[in-house]
Structures are given as structure tokens and as C-alpha cells.
Specification:
alpha+beta, 1 helix, single chain, 42% strand, SASP_SspH, 5 strands
Length: 59
């Protein structure tokens, strides 16, 4: 996924399904460098990680 789409999803009021390595995730924010995205596993919201936006997939 490109960073432009990540920002669109973040600003959307709709719930948009996104996966990282086949796991449903919630996008928290874009990092300042514009390439990394902070996400958390939908099942484990207390654990967040930074991943490359290209590794996210919209479902």
C-alpha cells in the first residue's frame, strides 16, 4: 500500500480492513519519515509496531 492510501484510511470515518502479513491490523499513525506506519494487531491493541507501508494490504 502506498503512503497516500494510508493517510486516506487514517482520515476516513469508514472502517477499512487492512492486513499486515495476513493479520488484521489497525493503523495508528504515519511516522514522520513518511514511509513507516505504526499499527497494532486488532486482537492485541496494546502491542503496536512500525512497519513499512508497502507491507500493508487493504482487504
Amino acid at each position: 500500500m502506498d503512503i497516500k492510501r494510508v493517510k486516506q484510511i487514517l482520515s476516513s470515518s469508514d472502517t477499512i480492513s487492512v492486513e499486515y502479513n495476513g493479520v488484521p491490523v489497525w493503523i495508528e499513525k504515519c511516522e514522520e519519515n513518511g514511509k513507516l506506519v505504526q499499527v497494532h494487531d486488532v486482537a492485541y491493541p496494546q502491542e503496536s509496531v512500525s512497519v513499512d507501508a508497502a507491507e500493508l494490504e487493504e482487504k
